[in-house]
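ARCHIVE CARD
Drawer: 12
Card no.: 0347
Subject: one protein chain, sequence and derived structure
Cross-reference: see card 0346
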Amino acid sequence: MSTMETKLIHIDLEGKILPLHVAANLEALFDDPADPDQSPCWAEPWPAARGLAAFFLQGPDLEGKTVLELGAGVGLPGVACGLRGAAVTFSDFQHRALQLCEANARLHRLSVYRLLLADWRDFACKERFDLILASDIAYEPRLLPSLKAVLLGVSSPGGAIYFSHPRRPVTLAFIEELLQSNLFTEKRLAVTVAVPEDPVRTAYEIAIHRLQRTAG
């Protein structure tokens, strides 16, 4: 496993500036380019994570709520929820992703957080959470059956799953599949996210879906 160097960046979330530890050199993190599981997609905050974080920073107080961030990467949405008072569990199947999550939780002095090393294909966590954060994680078809089982297992009755994504057709289809179970009701909104350092696009339209699980 290659050594991970980090750097501190500052992200503008609709006027609120958040510092964040990210990987300094993505190219150095490719342990095996032929293995999709080894892609360092976890090493920097994606536009959808920025959009979901901005949403929670502007939302209500989350004191007393339990939050699970799946595929947490650097943990930006989870940090946002922690700053609003939630007890956050950062989950990823990459050790180095959880190192970044812990660094960012400490940077923002979150009082209550945990790290959960877990693969959706063998997800042992049996807890249920008030809020599940799914920031642009439903895009790899081979993993979606496992992700669905995880979401159904960890979402509390009356709780909610928050999806954010840049309008990916595969993600929309996955959400529709979850809705067909009749276990959820849905609300949608959209936010525009600025990514000034992106060399290709400096703004993204991010869809956010709130799937409320029925209480029964």
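Annotation on reverse: The chain has one domain: 43-213. The helical segments are 47-57, 76-83, 95-107, 144-154, 169-179.
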